[in-house]
Amino acid sequence: MADLRSNFVGIKSPNPFWLASAPPTDKEYNVRRAFDAGWGGVVWKTLGLDPHIVNVNGPRYGVIYGADRRVLGINNIELITDRPLQTNLDEIKLVKRDYPDRAMIVSLMVPCEEVCWTDILKQVEDTGADGVELNFGCPHGMSERGMGAAVGQVPDYIEMVSRWCKAATRMPVIVKLTPNITDIRYPARAALKGGADAVSLINTVSSITSVNLDEMAPEPTIDGKGSHGGYCGPAVKPIALNMVAEIARDAETRGLPISGIGGITTWRDAAEFIALGAGNVQVCTAAMTYGFKIVSEMVSGLSDWMDEKGYGTIDDFKGRAVPNVTDWQYLNLNFVTKARIDQDACIKCGRCYAACEDTSHQAISMSADRTFEVIDAECVACNLCVNVCPVENCITMERLPAGAVDERTGRVVQDDHGDWTSHPNNPGAVAAE
Amino acid sequence: MSEGTRKDGIVSGRLGPDQYVSNFGDAYPPLNPHEALVAADRCYFCHDAPCITACPTEIDIPLFIRQIQADNPKGAAKTILAQNIFGGMCARVCPTETLCEQACVREAAEGQPVKIGHLQRFATDTLMETGTHPFTRAAPTGKIVAVIGAGPAGLSCAHRLAMHGHNVVVVDGREKAGGLNEYGIASYKTVDNFAQAEVDWLLKIGGIRIETGSVMGRDYTLEEIRTDYDAVFLGFGLSGVNSLTLEGGDGDEVGDAVDFIATLRQTTDLAALPIGRRVVVIGGGMTAVDAAVQSKLLGAEEVTIAYRRDKSGMSASEVEQEHATSAGVRIVYNAQPVAKTPDGITFEYTETGPDGLRGTGETFTLAADQIFRAIGQSLTMPDGAALDIERGKIRTDTEGRTSLPGVWAGGDCALGGEDLTVTAVAEGRDAAESIHKALSA
Known about the structure:
The complex is a heterodimer. Chain A is an alpha/beta fold. Chain A has 2 domains: about 5-325, Aldolase class I (TIM Barrel, Alpha-Beta Barrel); about 330-420, Alpha-Beta Plaits. Chain A has helices at about 30-35, 85-100, 115-125, 150, 155-170, 185-195, 235-250, 265-275, 285-290, 295-310, 350-360, 385-390, and strands spanning about 5-10, 10-15, 15-20, 40-45, 60-65, 70-75, 105-110, 130-135, 175, 200, 205, 210, 215-220, 230, 260, 280-285, 335-340, 365, 370-375, 395-400. Chain A has an 8-stranded parallel barrel with strand order 3-4-7-8-9-10-15-16, surrounded by 8 helices. In chain A, α3 (about 115-125) packs across α5, α5 runs parallel beside α6 and α8 crosses α10 (about 295-310). By secondary structure, chain B is an alpha/beta fold. Chain B folds into 3 domains: about 10-25 and about 240-375, 3-Layer(bba) Sandwich (FAD/NAD(P)-binding domain), CATH 3.50.50.60; about 35-130, Fumarate Reductase Iron-sulfur Protein, Chain B, domain 2, CATH 1.10.1060; about 145-240 and about 380-440, 3-Layer(bba) Sandwich (FAD/NAD(P)-binding domain). Chain B is built from 17 helices and 19 strands. A 5-stranded parallel β-sheet of chain B has the order 4-3-2-5-19, with helices on one face. A 5-stranded parallel β-sheet of chain B has the order 7-15-9-10-11. A 3-stranded antiparallel β-sheet of chain B has the order 12-13-14, with no helix packed on it.
């Protein structure tokens, strides 16, 4: 039986699944339900200074659906907590007292003045919370007031505020990063320089989910107008995975603890984040879509998979995939594959043919009786046919063995590694020793 | 008080009023918008899709399903109706399980084809509910074409001719236009008077005049029509009913299934329609199934379809057969009628030998107070119409031209294709294109 216990920068939780700072962690009632359902920890919805902010009174969310109204992504324009600071602090204290084994992290967002941060940190410490998360991520609303993503987009500010906070509290400080930036490594490096214990990412992506073509207004629409929101859910997971990996493999930030966030919906998503270097994960959209019970699937799925793979603890596979994330220039150009179609599995839909013929390399032939075959002399191994085939494993990529001739290039497949750095077409190539 | 199902003889009012309503409601209720989206999402948008090839009218099925998926059901309807102006009726009556849905790659993959027929109905219903007609006429050509028969073939031909700017006069022997859509299809497939609503909608194209109650050979001749019009299309179907003479005679209790279905379709009071306690339908086509199921729905206690060949020989599809059996109809295969008895009908079992079907000598008798013949229809050529006939149908070429210059034919009366609504629509449409080409030359 795998041990799912998590110790993230000294914060212990019975499993690595935390609820992200968001509507599900807005108040005592919700958080108690979450802990009862089995969540390992919560990041309490972001606290700010009094007088507390207000939210819109129209819709806060927009959505992107897949088939059968499956939620693929949600966009929100909700701000930080809209309740008095003391109310939140009191509730945090009560919940932490009753659930001492769960991780209680408090998200914070106050103006970029040192006294604001030091004051609120003292108050949070009094609750017995395990740590704080600095919200430098929210791209909507608060950023107009110089907070949230407005801070996260300026590495100097990240470093400065992180330093203030580290100096002001004994609690671990996690810095939550915005993805609305060109290169995620810069804010991560700034957090590290400022002394942050960890980064968490990604916060939401600036977005307009859709346009109401009758009202000619973005959704969600408030009295005919809309404002960009923050996009989250399964749709943003690929963006988040890359950003986590970039930080995990960056020479400067390597080893900086990461709390992975972004579209985590199943145990597998969580395992992928952890394999790319995350120490734990945070979830929001999946809970908002399906309710807190979804953690049961995540816990059991991760545990079963770890048992199957022989991983005893989270640390046993944490970061295992990081060494395999590399720059394009180091990819082996001598790895030659060709698409192979399993004729018995083929249902003759012709999607591979349409994709290849219209948009790729004309490497699939179609006969009068709808038999689809790969033309090796044209196949560049792009994988698009595999991607669009509706039958799993019907089309696979087969590696040509060393010594075989690639019919497309006429070249004999080499046994050794050969990448762009040494390729003759690369003006900057370094000759092999 | 209803008479109940166990009263002997052919009696009316077997059921309570509510039961008639529920029995004759939509057999396959339409998809709601969400169901349609879910069903549409299963379409793989195949390249050169097999379902298109399998459709006699070659509707671009992947395109119309994608239009439904993209929240444009009216656009989907236009895609359908541009190929098949009876897309609404075909969505209800096509044996999709032997056409598009049989060819669907998801049928091959998992035995669950995309619900093409249901989706087609969703699209066409959505458009037709708006009452708008999506097609307009070309500039008037001054030509006038006679279409004989206001069924699917004739009206499909008329609509396409009208679109091309020709004027059309459609002549039909019955009281109402629609042909088999109006008179020959089970009512649970086309509820709420859909057949007439569809004809009314179709005629909104303009330029089409319908004359009913006029029969070729009785009220006018083909030669007169040929003289008076620029072209003639024959789509009068099969008016002859194959006969079956039973030893023991044909009393009032023996009738033709097509007449029973037509009467049922035209009746406004189902409770007034008499039906036997024990009904036997002889035949193996869709007419047999429609007659048998509706007998059951009218309150017959026992309904049996007796078919002389085996299950696979039945021209009613498996889905149709299952529909019958799930409605409580028993199907007896390999049974050929031998003789009428005072209170029933005797059959002999058959088997397929080297020389074809033969009786085994073993017989059985089914109690029956009503018997329907449903053993097929045949061409009755109007007097004076001298056209080449081949295999019992009017001989036509690939464009629908008959042996007489200026005369085209399509639908059940013409050679080629299965006797299906969708085939008739395709033949009428294609003949119209050929006529248009000839008149434009």
